[in-house]
Amino acid sequence: MCIFCKIVNKEIPAKIVYEDEDTMAFLDINPRNKGHTLVIPKKHYETLDEMPDEELAKLMKAVKKVVEILKPLNFDGYNIINNNKPAAGQEVPHVHFHIIPRYQNDGDVVKFGEVKKIDLDEVEKIIKQ
Ligand SMILES: [Zn+2]
């Protein structure tokens, strides 16, 4: 059983900030910023595209709810991040959305890579095959 499923089953303690029938949110134990929270479906799915639409919709509603719950932290903005598969930086193979509160001038909390020269016509051709 994966570590997030163990948190859902309360076999591993976590700082739970929100929970309903289908979803759970808890503070990330390796926070990138104050209030960094993970929102997960209680049912185990590895990646977002494996989730049925209705369950994904519930998860996204929970993400929004948790943003509201975190507002007492007085952040100035926030990032929502979802990584799928190790190549994309997914560390736990159970779908999760990161909510990372952002504060003015808080540095390189979340960073996009460099802009790459990519042939957009070629990409379009591949996906429209
Ligand atoms: Zn799991």
Automatic annotation (TrEMBL):
A motif (Histidine triad motif) lies at residues 94-98. One of its GO terms (biological process) is nucleotide metabolic process. GO terms for molecular function: catalytic activity. Pfam families: HIT (PF01230). InterPro entries: HINT, Histidine_triad_CS, Histidine_triad_HIT, HIT-like, HIT-like_sf. Gene3D superfamilies: HIT-like (3.30.428.10). CDD domains: HINT_subgroup. It comes from the Archaea. Residues 3-109 form the HIT domain. The active site is at 96 (tele-amp-histidine intermediate). This is Histidine triad (HIT) protein. It comes from Methanotorris igneus (strain DSM 5666 / JCM 11834 / Kol 5).
